[in-house]
Every structure is written in structure tokens, then in C-alpha cells.
């Protein structure tokens, strides 16, 4: 009976529908949360498990996601990584853009410019969609490229944003708050290194937690903020693909000397779905960022959608022009 239930067809294929939408596992629950917060803001404030999971559960779910991310770095993917490729992706996609965002913060202040806060810039520029990278690199690249998934895993979560904000003086991040952000990641590193079985178990954590986390984040955002922040998020998403993807492309071409395969670098020009939770996590550590959380989360959500659609298109176009749009054959490469 139980086996039949597991293998039976869905009456309404919610899950498959969400998967067909770019970044749908994050965007659809987020939008539902926004709608409930806008039209029935007290519906989930009834206490008990309901409020704990659907209204107040974002931080706990973020912590679980960070723990799982740490376990992936020391798990199966990292064994394939070429250090040079991973370093170039991390440098070009995350570290340089985050450093530029901090420089802009020192010039314009925390509120940023054109309605885009420095918090939004760091969340959007500093997190990359590891799943999209892994899928694209797995099809058109080789083990050096798929192994660079480690870079995407490393920049997931709020602690890099906290480090940049704290080191620059833009954020007053208490030491214990920084430690609290890193502890789940560090424990995940240890668990993944000691027991690879846990790494395999934790592989499914993002697909489980991201929809619930996104819904909880959405319950703190109003529909008006989404509508007003959508245009900025659109431009930021395009900017992520062009700027961070372009930087990674240049790194592939001139540092790694990958020739016709350099276009793979544009696939790094994305924003991770869990980046939508970074503004809230940073504001918990430094309440001065609280006024920017709502707009930053809305802009980040838009950028996630834009980059998920645009980055693989641009990467494929560049690969095609350079003659590198060939599917990787692991069997022939092993021979």
C-alpha cells in the first residue's frame, strides 16, 4: 500500500509545475508568502507549529541550508575540483563583485543609489546558483568545471556578506554574530569530511528547505515592495549576468586559457535562490540594515528569476560562436 502511494501519479502536479518555472522552487512559495502577508497578514500569526514554520521559520531553515552547504564542499563534488578553476570562479563571480559593492557602499552609504541598497547588491552579486552551474557545466564542460561547484557552495549564505560588511566598516557585525553565522557551515564541513554518507543524505536539503524558507521570507514582504522593486531587480539581474558572468568568462579565457570553452564562465553569472534570505540574516546581526531588508529581498527574488533564464542563454550563445557548444562525453574523455 505504501509503495503504491509513493509510485502513484499526482492528482495535481504541483512539484513538477514548480520545477518547470525558472527558479520556481524559490519564486512560487515566495510570491505566495507575499500575497498572504499583503491580504491576510495575521493569518499565520496563530502560534504553534503553524507560525513557527510558515511565519518565523526562515532563520532556522537558513541555518539548515548553510549546514548542508558545508557538507557538500567536503563531499563528492569537491574531489573532482581543479583548484585553479574553483579559484577563478570564486574570485570572478563572488569576491571581486562583492568588493566593488563594498566600495560603492563606502561612497554612497548603506542606502546605495537608485533605490538599490548595498545590502541588495551584496546579496545579488555575491551568491551564485550552484545547481544551474552544475547542470550547465556537466553538459558542456568537464570535471574541472563541475568541480568548481565548490565555489558556488562556498558563497552560499550570509557569512561572506557579513565578512565584507564587517571588514569594510559598513556593518557593525558583532563577533559572536559572525561566529553564529559560520558555525553551521563549519559543522557541515566537518560532517561532510568525516562521513560522506551524510553528504549524500544532505544533497536533498536545498530542494526541501528552499520552498519553505522562501515562503517564510515572503511573509515579511509586501506586494507593493515587490512591484516597486521589480524594475531594479530586473536591471540588477541583467547586470549580474553581464558583469559577473563576463568576469568569469575573462578568467576562463585569459587565466585558465580554456579557449572555445571559455563561454562556460557566463553560466556563473547567476544569483542563488537562497540569496533572498541574505538580507534578513544580515539585519539580524546588524539592525541598521532592517529598513533595507524588504526591498532587498524583493529585488533579489527578481534577479534570481532573470539570471536563471538569461545566464544559460548567454553562455550557450558565446559557446556557439566560439565553437565550444559540444556536449561533454565523460566516456571518451576518460579514454
From TrEMBL:
<keyword id="KW-0472">Membrane</keyword>
<feature type="transmembrane region" description="Helical">
    <location>
        <begin position="52"/>
        <end position="71"/>
    </location>
</feature>
<feature type="transmembrane region" description="Helical">
    <location>
        <begin position="148"/>
        <end position="167"/>
    </location>
</feature>
<feature type="transmembrane region" description="Helical">
    <location>
        <begin position="264"/>
        <end position="285"/>
    </location>
</feature>
<feature type="transmembrane region" description="Helical">
    <location>
        <begin position="297"/>
        <end position="319"/>
    </location>
</feature>
<keyword id="KW-0762">Sugar transport</keyword>
<dbReference type="InterPro" id="IPR004684">
    <property type="entry name" value="2keto-3dGluconate_permease"/>
</dbReference>
<keyword id="KW-0769">Symport</keyword>
<dbReference type="GO" id="GO:0015649">
    <property type="term" value="F:2-keto-3-deoxygluconate:proton symporter activity"/>
</dbReference>
<keyword id="KW-0812">Transmembrane</keyword>
<dbReference type="Pfam" id="PF03812">
    <property type="entry name" value="KdgT"/>
</dbReference>
<feature type="transmembrane region" description="Helical">
    <location>
        <begin position="21"/>
        <end position="40"/>
    </location>
</feature>
<keyword id="KW-1133">Transmembrane helix</keyword>
<keyword id="KW-0813">Transport</keyword>
<protein>
    <submittedName>
        <fullName>2-keto-3-deoxygluconate permease</fullName>
    </submittedName>
</protein>
<feature type="transmembrane region" description="Helical">
    <location>
        <begin position="173"/>
        <end position="194"/>
    </location>
</feature>
<comment type="similarity">
    <text>Belongs to the KdgT transporter family.</text>
</comment>
<feature type="transmembrane region" description="Helical">
    <location>
        <begin position="233"/>
        <end position="252"/>
    </location>
</feature>
<dbReference type="GO" id="GO:0016020">
    <property type="term" value="C:membrane"/>
</dbReference>
<keyword id="KW-1003">Cell membrane</keyword>
<feature type="transmembrane region" description="Helical">
    <location>
        <begin position="83"/>
        <end position="108"/>
    </location>
</feature>
<feature type="transmembrane region" description="Helical">
    <location>
        <begin position="206"/>
        <end position="227"/>
    </location>
</feature>
<feature type="transmembrane region" description="Helical">
    <location>
        <begin position="114"/>
        <end position="136"/>
    </location>
</feature>
Amino acid at each position: 500500500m505504501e509503495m503504491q502511494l509513493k509510485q502513484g501519479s499526482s492528482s495535481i502536479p504541483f512539484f513538477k509545475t514548480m520545477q518547470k518555472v525558472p527558479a520556481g522552487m524559490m519564486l512560487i512559495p515566495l510570491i505566495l508568502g507575499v500575497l498572504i502577508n499583503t491580504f491576510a497578514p495575521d493569518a499565520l500569526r496563530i502560534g504553534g507549529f503553524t507560525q513557527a514554520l510558515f511565519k518565523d521559520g526562515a532563520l532556522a531553515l537558513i541555518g539548515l541550508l548553510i549546514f548542508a552547504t558545508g557538507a557538500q564542499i567536503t563531499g563528492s563534488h569537491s574531489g573532482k575540483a581543479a583548484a585553479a578553476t574553483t579559484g577563478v570562479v570564486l574570485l570572478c563571480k563572488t569576491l571581486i563583485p562583492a568588493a566593488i559593492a563594498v566600495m560603492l557602499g563606502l561612497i554612497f552609504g548603506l542606502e546605495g543609489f537608485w533605490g538599490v541598497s548595498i545590502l541588495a547588491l551584496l546579496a545579488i552579486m555575491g551568491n551564485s546558483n550552484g545547481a544551474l552551474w552544475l547542470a550547465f557545466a556537466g553538459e558542456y564542460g568537464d570535471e574541472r568545471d563541475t568541480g568548481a561547484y565548490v565555489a558556488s557552495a562556498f558563497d552560499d549564505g550570509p557569512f561572506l556578506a557579513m565578512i565584507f560588511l564587517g571588514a569594510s566598516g559598513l556593518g557593525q557585525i558583532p563577533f559572536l554574530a559572525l561566529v553564529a553565522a559560520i558555525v553551521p557551515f563549519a559543522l557541515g564541513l566537518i560532517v561532510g569530511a568525516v562521513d560522506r554518507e551524510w553528504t549524500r543524505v544532505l544533497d536533498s536539503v536545498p530542494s526541501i528547505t528552499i520552498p519553505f524558507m522562501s515562503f517564510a521570507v515572503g511573509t515579511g514582504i509586501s506586494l507593493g515592495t515587490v512591484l516597486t522593486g521589480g524594475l531594479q531587480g530586473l536591471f540588477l539581474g541583467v547586470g549580474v549576468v553581464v558583469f559577473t558572468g563576463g568576469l568569469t568568462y575573462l578568467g576562463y579565457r585569459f587565466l585558465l586559457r580554456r579557449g572555445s570553452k571559455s563561454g562556460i564562465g557566463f553560466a556563473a553569472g547567476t544569483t542563488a535562490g537562497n540569496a533572498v534570505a541574505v538580507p534578513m540574516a544580515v539585519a539580524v546581526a546588524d539592525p541598521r540594515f532592517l529598513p533595507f531588508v524588504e526591498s532587498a529581498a524583493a529585488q533579489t527574488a527578481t534577479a534570481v528569476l532573470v539570471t536563471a533564464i538569461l545566464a544559460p542563454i548567454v553562455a550557450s550563445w558565446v559557446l556557439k560562436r566560439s565553437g565550444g557548444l559540444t556536449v561533454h562525453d565523460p566516456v571518451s574523455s576518460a579514454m
